[in-house]
């Protein structure tokens, strides 16, 4: 008689990490959004944070919803940064605008991940380039 034991794979830690990652990432985007658009109403802020939390929990079950939410925030941030760049013609504003545009492209690519595996590489490359552009803008800002 052969006895085998099987280990039941648990995704609890993965889902906790995924929800935590998306919560803090979307909370950071919301922070940038609220600073750029000068949100001052506390009730609206708490309602939006509540919806962010719901989005993060849903992201463990529905693929792409967190990327869609991030894309919306990034697009709104990009629009405000574009407006700022067009009014100031500042090089750092241009870098910030480009960084968020590239980040937006990366998150849009993530939503089409099911089409082909190489889209993941393209999306992560866009995000990496966006973070390098943000770092470069930060260095330019510090030096000036």
Task: Please supply descriptive tags for the structure shown above.
144 residues; 0% strand; single chain; mainly alpha
Question: What would your notes on this structure say?
Answer:
With 144 residues, this protein is mostly helical. It has one domain (12-143). 79% of the residues lie in helices and 0% in strands. It has helices spanning 12-36, 42-59, 65-88, 91-111, 118-143. Helix 3 packs antiparallel against helix 4. The longest helix is centred in the C-terminal third of the chain and has 26 residues, at 118-143. The model has no long low-confidence stretch (mean pLDDT 91).
List the helices and strands and how they pair.
Elements: H1 12-36, H2 42-59, H3 65-88, H4 91-111, H5 118-143
Helix pairs in contact: 1-2, 1-3, 3-4, 4-5
């Amino acid at each position: 008689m052969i006895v085998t034991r099987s280990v039941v794979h648990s995704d609890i830690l993965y889902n906790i990490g995924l929800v935590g990652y998306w919560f803090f990432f979307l909370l950071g985007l919301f922070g940038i959004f609220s600073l750029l658009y000068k949100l001052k109403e506390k009730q609206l802020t708490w309602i939006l944070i509540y919806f962010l939390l719901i989005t993060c929990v849903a992201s463990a079950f529905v693929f792409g919803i967190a990327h869609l939410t991030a894309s919306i925030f990034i697009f709104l941030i990009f629009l405000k940064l574009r407006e700022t760049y067009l009014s100031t013609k500042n090089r750092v504003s241009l870098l910030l605008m480009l960084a968020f545009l590239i980040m937006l492209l990366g998150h849009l690519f993530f939503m089409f991940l099911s089409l082909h595996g190489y889209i993941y590489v393209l999306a992560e490359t866009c995000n990496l380039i966006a973070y390098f552009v943000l770092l470069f803008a930060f260095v330019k800002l510090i030096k000036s």
